[in-house]
What we know:
By secondary structure, the protein is α/β, with parallel strands linked by helices. It contains four helices and seven strands; from the N terminus they run αβββαβαβββα. It folds into two domains: 1-43; 55-185, Glutaredoxin, CATH 3.40.30. The strands form two sheets. A five-stranded mixed β-sheet has the order 5-4-3-6-7. It has a two-stranded antiparallel ribbon with strand order 1-2. Strand 3, helix 2 and strand 4 form a beta-alpha-beta unit.
Amino acid sequence: MSPYLRARLMVSLLVVVVVVSLYSLFSMPTRLKDRDAPQVKEVAVTKPSAPKEPVIPIEEGKPPVPLSQLKGKIVILDFWATWCGPCKTSMPEIDEVYLKYRDKGVIIAGVSVDKEDARSRYVIIRKSVHYPTVMALDIPGLLDFFDITSLPSVYVFDTNGKRVASIGGYRPGWLEDVVTDLLKKKP
């Protein structure tokens, strides 16, 4: 065996010994500590600022209102994002429904599910509709009440605050059909 090859082998062996020694040194106390540690049960922690029920932004610049305080109104929540093409396609139709039925007890609110880095795009799109919109980031816990699996997602609540319809995706005419049916049933 050449002296060069012997030297490389010795250095490699030395590196392996050092790595194994360091691993044993730093992992041993942790393993002993884990073995002797008492078992800790997981406890569910609730967010202190999370609402107990969905809150609805009914007016720009004012705090959202709990759904239970909107009895007698038909409430519609439109979850959307700035990057979502179908969301932007549905917004003019939702805006038309809002303008047509807002004086008949229909409340529509848009909720952007965008991340903070999209806030500037959100502000631009928000100005294209008449109904109030907010970013979900600004209402802690709001998304916990909804099972949003696609965008846009629209949730409709009747005059008693009961969810009576929802849709994931965009279907032209769907929202107005639901609203007119609910208005026929409204006392």
